[in-house]
Amino acid sequence: MKIVALFPEATKGQTENNVLDDYTALNLRPFLEERGHELVVLKDGEDDLDQHLKDMDVVISAPFYPAYMTKERIEQAPNLKLAITAGVGSDHVDLEAASEHDISVVEVTDSNTVSVAEHIVMTTLILVRNYEEGHRQSEEGGWNLTQVTNHAFELQNKTIGIFGLGRIGRLVGERLKPFNVDIIHYRRSSQEDTDFSKYVNFDELVHKSDVLIITTPLTPETDDLFDYNTISQMKDGSYIVNCARGKIVNKEEVVKMIEENHLQGYGGDVWYPQPAPSDHPWRTMPRNAMTIHYSGMVIEAQLRIEKGVKDLLTHFFDETPFPKEDVIVNGGQITSQSYAKHDDSNN
Ligand code: NAD
């Protein structure tokens, strides 16, 4: 079989720890060769991918540097049977088109939950304590204390709102609770409170949060959900942390809300498209705590992703069922509860 993989380009001299790059390629070369399969690791991202559509059987890519498997590409890939997400979050694949063409879409569920949750906690503290301004002055030789402190606060007693309390959202809540904060959440799968968080509806979440943390997948329902209209209903001086997907937030309108000083800060690691163009406005907007998309790609996560991708390929070759929690699309249906359409999504 022909397996095509798109991985981030390895940096010279930085290959001793990384496995999720085009040099080590998750150690898939020996793994696949000894089973008699061909592995093509793409060098130039998207352009190269198109050359292989006609005869590839499996595509593998990571959300950090995704191969966008659009409807058009899927239609040009008659042999494609499997799309593996080397990580978590399969929105770079057109899931409806994959279902129609009976292509399975699977991911390595839970491979980077802790990694992302830690990044979200870090980003929350960076924003609320105005770390970025303090750090900028430290680097640039400044000592204007009041310029930092005018927007530097404690986290305790703030209301943290978690949008989508799944694997990452739960860990974020558990890790933030000891900061003595009030935690509220909205998810569509259950209206139950948890031991650390109170369930509220979406409007309450938006109105009450000092820090609103987004941890849902990108779906047609969450696409562009945080636009001017939604953000303007948040408290003056509040913050958004988004390590879920960039497209859940409206790119231009969040900048506007920051510039109008309605939002005090915005942070996270996800963009649209990825890689983000060098002139993407989130790179330079005021009071941002953005990084490039690496929160779920720290070394421990990469090693779990390597193991998970090999396990998924083994199930595929052996024709044994994929672990249920890893399956997004199978048998012509979107089976993942996180991605399937819900009629009550506005409850
Ligand atoms: P999960 O499936 O465990 O949790 C998702 C939660 O969102 C579930 O509780 C689900 O009910 C809820 N949800 C889905 N649609 C909703 C809607 N319309 N309204 C309200 N709630 C909704 O997923 P997870 O492992 O916690 O990951 C969440 C997302 O985070 C992934 O889909 C991915 O996009 C992103 N992610 C980012 C990184 C990164 O490196 N930045 C890494 C992993 C995952």
From TrEMBL:
Q: Which UniProt keywords apply?
A: Oxidoreductase
Per the database record, which ranges form the D-isomer specific 2-hydroxyacid dehydrogenase NAD-binding domain? Answer: 122-294
Q: Which Gene3D superfamilies match?
A: NAD(P)-binding Rossmann-like Domain (3.40.50.720)
UniProt key word Nucleotide-binding: no
Query: Quick check: keyword tRNA processing in the entry?
Result: no
What SUPFAM superfamilies would the database entry show?
Formate/glycerate dehydrogenase catalytic domain-like, NAD(P)-binding Rossmann-fold domains
Protein name per the record: Formate dehydrogenase
**Organism in which the protein naturally occurs:** Staphylococcus simulans UMC-CNS-990
